[in-house]
Design brief:
Helix content: 10-25%
Distance between the termini: 52 Å
Order of helices and strands: HEEHEEEEEEEEEEEEEHEE
Number of strands: 17
CATH architecture of the largest domain: Sandwich
Shape: globular
Structural class: mainly beta
Number of domains: 2
CATH class of the largest domain: Mainly Beta
Length: 265
């Protein structure tokens, strides 16, 4: 009888743990979401020489050691993380350098709106971080796909925005290779475009963008956007890093001027 009680107690505990884990979604308990809905916050680390960063977007401040180092943003890892959080109450938004979590790159609180999407872009250099927090007002509707049905080719799109996060880079114009019209004109530091839908029908594997200096139309970079990978998604294409056209500075790859894409899904 005693052994039976122990076994029953263990099974009850195990079932409770399984139930608890099944309730989690993106780091939140379902109960924490309540009936008020959720908001999405995309945190993007484009800081030069800043290394990895830890981000906390939740109802309360946390001990940084509770966030695993491998969840850090930047460097050779993921540049961004999308948080899904409850709304209608003050939300903590904090970002700290992984190498020294006493250095807060961002430390604010905000009450977020139901079903709204926010972007937090971090740029500049490690010793002077620039931040840009933005509530999206024209965020594209998510493409809902039925796995049991083929997706019509007309719905094969990717939503792209361009963001200039290079602290030393020039204002840029952006065009699709072979096209005379611009997708962006005079895009300066910490400026961004609206999201725009680009067709990515079957057989479209990349979209080639040319980034040019606005001042003299000199080609800065040619970027092959992976349309096949990002099909049906919403993406920010970032210009980031130190602009060094003469290649005279001893920059690592991660600190050099480059183009990267981060998703909102």
């Amino acid at each position: 009888m005693k052994r039976t009680k122990i076994k029953a107690g263990f099974c009850f505990l195990l079932s409770g743990l399984l139930l608890c884990s099944s309730c989690r979604k993106d780091g939140l308990m379902q109960g924490e979401l309540g009936d008020s809905g959720v908001a999405r916050v995309n945190v993007v680390n484009a800081v030069v020489s800043g290394g990895y960063a830890k981000a906390n977007v939740s109802l309360k401040k946390v001990y940084w050691n509770t966030i695993a180092d491998y969840d850090g943003l930047g460097g050779s890892g993921s540049l961004n993380r999308l948080f899904r959080v409850p709304v209608g109450q003050p939300m903590v938004l904090q970002v700290a350098s992984l190498s020294d979590t006493t250095k807060l790159w961002y430390d604010q609180s905000a009450v977020l709106g139901r079903d709204e999407v926010y972007s937090l872009y971090l740029s500049g250099i490690g010793s002077h971080v620039d931040t840009l927090f933005h509530r999206e007002t024209n965020f594209p509707a998510y493409v809902v796909r039925d796995a049991a049905k083929p997706v019509p080719s007309a719905d094969s799109i990717v939503n792209i925005r361009f963001v200039n996060l290079s602290p030393s880079g020039p204002k840029v114009d952006i065009n699709i290779q072979g096209m005379s019209s611009n997708e962006a004109s005079g895009l300066g530091y910490q400026k961004f475009t609206d999201f725009k839908a680009y067709p990515t029908k079957t057989g479209t594997y990349s979209i080639v963008f040319e980034i040019r200096r606005s001042s003299d139309k000199q080609l800065v970079s040619t970027y092959y956007f992976n349309a096949d990978y990002f099909r049906f998604k919403t993406v920010s294409v970032l210009m980031m890093g130190i602009y060094d056209p003469d290649l005279s500075l001893p920059l690592s790859y991660y600190d050099s001027y480059r183009i990267e894409a981060v998703s909102y899904e």
